[in-house]
Design brief:
Structural class: alpha+beta
Low-confidence stretches: 1-7, 253-261
Number of helices: 25
Strand content: 15-25%
Number of strands: 22
Helix content: 40-55%
Mean pLDDT: 78
Oligomer: single chain
Strand order of the largest sheet: 10-22-21-20-11-18-19
Radius of gyration: 33 Å
Length: 665
């Protein structure tokens, strides 16, 4: 598919850039060590002396290599930004390293002053490391689409002229008849033309129970076949497939989100304008007043060095590094830094039901006896004996309940599946069947009055010799933490909605039990994205929480996508934040950490740019007449101090312990 190739090429380009930045960083780091060791300022600070004949030329050669090789991405970025007339961080870095290099080279060859080689080397090394991390983040985010594509098998079994041949998925065409064996992934969208089976569509539609499929039923590519064999006539292949449309939706939503400009980029743009304006004005002003060329250049260089974005470039990454580590200790895996920072803006949290608010596993809630000659354990034993031969999740839940209760599970003979209605066989010489309410209606068997329908509950009946002996109520159990999570969020004025592909009856029951603000039921994946858009159009800042492929478009569409750790890799890759412990309560912790992170970011940005308000005028020489002027060396020290202050402030990031405990207890 063309769009897949385009995305693949784009991702490969980013990976090449990561390797390039990483290589340049390590080489620059090695070259910087002797430059730092031979710097007079560093020697004075550390209290040692190191010099030899020709050391200045040696440092010049190393600095030139660092400037040309390590600084190349920024010099190229400077040209590109100026061409597009959008100056930003690349312009500022490019200007800073150019001024530092040209001025230092001039000093090496006779101009009075002190070279800035060590500042040049450290600036380039730090910025290379920062951009390496940035590009790695971009590739990580785009991996969601690759993982979605991996849901499809690499080959398909095509039936042709009475025989079956294995072909690459790319060769599947509309109208082909494919054979799907038990346990295999469905290779394309289409219609069943022969056979029957249960299909696991939970990764795509959110329906927690495998769906019975027989001749004439539709299948979705990427879903998983149960224990039956099927023949499928292809209706949607390539770009026309359902999964491809989901992939495109995720790509579009992620692309729209990536256009948001970071706060640091805006700060860099203004700092660039200030640096250029003040630097040029300083040089021109001193020359006009009759000052010497060397003095004027020194003043301009000091201004440019002070505005070097060491601190600005680290203001946000340092805070994020700290908050990411602390968040991880509290069960939050941060994938999108901007989204994490914006968690403070959340007004509505939308939860997927299955696997997020619920465990995604069927459990037996009650065993009811409708024929007094049997006991509960008898009913459970009969059902477990049959269901032990079934792969259906409801059957697994019944067997698990029998084992937990210590009930003896006998063996079943003459096992047979009743298509779409249940199973039957012989247990202890009795004819046993485990069936749905629909089967009772078909056989004109009266449903016991004490086994009425309950919201969110699936009930199966146990027949002994064709008479209703008992029933079992199963449900996808709500996580214990879900109640607390909803209450904690609503306490902070945040609305909680549920979004699910399950039926309205189940959705209403779960919503009422949790006290949610509302729910959307029977919603397909493409509609889930639309529901998120509806809330956004109402002015809500939405966080979406889900665990499956069916949630991927909605996770990408929401301002903040949150995946539970027990869900699929695809959901995690589409999300901005992953709840490692699969605990809905951690969303409250996310908001608290997001607020604390944003506060530190703003503090660092204010300092990283604010100190220039005082330092730049002094560097320009506005108080020269009263004997106050900053030399280039002092300017470099101030620049370094601002970086240290930003780093220390980032380390002070905290979320009040009592507030966190209250939110997550």
């Amino acid at each position: 598919m063309n769009t897949e190739h385009t995305h693949h090429d784009h991702t490969q380009h980013h990976r090449m850039m990561i390797r390039d930045f990483r290589k340049r960083f390590y080489i620059t780091l090695v070259l910087s060590i002797p430059v730092l060791a031979l710097s007079e300022l560093i020697q004075q600070f550390l209290g040692f002396s190191l010099e030899f004949t020709g050391d200045s030329m040696f440092v010049f050669v190393l600095a030139t290599a660092i400037f040309v090789y390590g600084g190349w991405p920024f010099l190229k970025g400077l040209v590109d930004e100026l061409k597009s007339r959008v100056p930003g961080m690349m312009t500022l870095i490019g200007l800073a390293i150019t001024v530092a290099y040209v001025y230092s080279a001039a000093v090496t060859f006779g101009l009075e002053g002190t070279p800035f080689y060590w500042e040049l080397a450290t600036l380039i090394a730090i910025m290379l490391a920062g951009h390496w991390i940035e590009m790695a983040s971009v590739v990580s985010a785009s991996s969601a689409l690759e993982k979605l594509a991996q849901l499809m098998p690499s080959e398909a079994h095509r039936k042709k002229d009475g025989e079956t041949e294995d072909i690459p998925l790319s060769e599947v065409r509309k109208g082909d008849v494919l054979v799907i064996k038990p346990g295999e992934k469905i290779p394309s969208d289409g219609k069943v033309v022969r056979g029957s089976s249960y299909i696991d569509e939970s990764m795509l539609t959110g329906e927690s129970r495998p769906v019975s499929k027989a001749e004439g039923d539709e299948l979705i590519g990427g879903s998983i076949n149960g224990d039956g064999s099927l023949e499928l006539q292809v209706e949607g292949a390539g770009e026309d497939s359902y999964l491809s449309k989901v992939i495109n939706m995720v790509r579009e939503a992620q692309s729209a989100k990536s256009k948001t400009q970071a706060l640091s980029d805006r700060a860099a743009m203004w700092l660039t304008i200030v640096a250029l304006t003040v630097g040029a004005a300083t040089l021109a002003g001193w020359l006009i007043t009759g000052a010497g060329l060397q003095f004027s250049i020194a003043r301009m260089a000091t201004v440019m060095i002070i505005t070097c974005p060491h601190a600005l470039g680290l203001a946000i990454p340092l805070v994020v590094a700290q908050s990411t580590a602390k968040s991880a200790q509290n069960g939050l895996l941060i994938r999108n830094r901007t989204a994490f920072e914006n968690a403070r803006k959340i007004t509505t949290v939308v939860f997927d039901k299955t696997g997020t608010l619920t465990k995604g596993v069927f459990e037996v809630g009650s065993v009811d006896v409708h024929d007094t000659q049997y006991e509960k354990n008898d009913i459970l034993s009969f059902a477990a004996a049959l269901e032990g031969q079934s792969e259906h999740p409801i059957g697994k839940g019944i067997v698990s309940a029998a084992k937990d209760a210590g009930v003896s599970i006998g063996s079943a003979d003459n096992f047979e599946a009743i298509k779409g209605k249940g199973v039957q066989g012989t247990v202890n010489k009795k004819s046993i069947a485990v069936v749905s309410p629909g089967y009772l209606e078909e056989q004109n068997l009266e449903q016991p009055k004490d086994a009425g329908r309950q919201g969110g509950v699936t009930r199966v009946f146990v027949l002994v010799d064709k008479q209703v002996a008992g029933s079992l109520a199963l449900s996808d159990t709500i996580r214990p933490e879900s109640h607390q999570a909803i209450q904690a969020l609503q306490k902070r004025g945040i609305k909680c909605w549920m979004l699910t592909g399950d039926n309205s009856e189940t959705a209403e029951a779960v919503s009422k039990e949790l006290g949610m603000d509302g729910y959307f039921a029977e919603v397909l994946p493409d509609q889930k994205q639309d529901k998120i858009k509806e809330l956004q159009e109402q002015g809500e800042y939405v966080a979406m929480t889900g665990d499956g492929v069916n949630d991927s478009p909605a996770l990408a569409q929401a301002q903040i996508g949150v995946a539970v750790g027990s869900g699929t890799d695809i959901a995690a890759a589409s999300a901005d934040i992953v709840l490692v412990n699969s605990n809905p309560l951690d969303i409250t912790a996310l908001i608290l950490f997001g607020r604390a992170t944003y506060r530190k970011m703003v503090q660092n940005l204010i300092w990283a740019t604010g100190y220039n308000v005082i330092a730049i005028p002094l560097a320009a020489g506005v108080l020269y007449s009263v004997g106050i002027v900053l030399s280039p060396e002092v300017g470099a020290i101030l620049m370094s101090m601002s970086t240290v202050i930003v780093a220390v402030n980032a380390q002070l990031l905290r979320v009040k312990k009592e507030e966190l405990e209250e939110a997550t207890s």
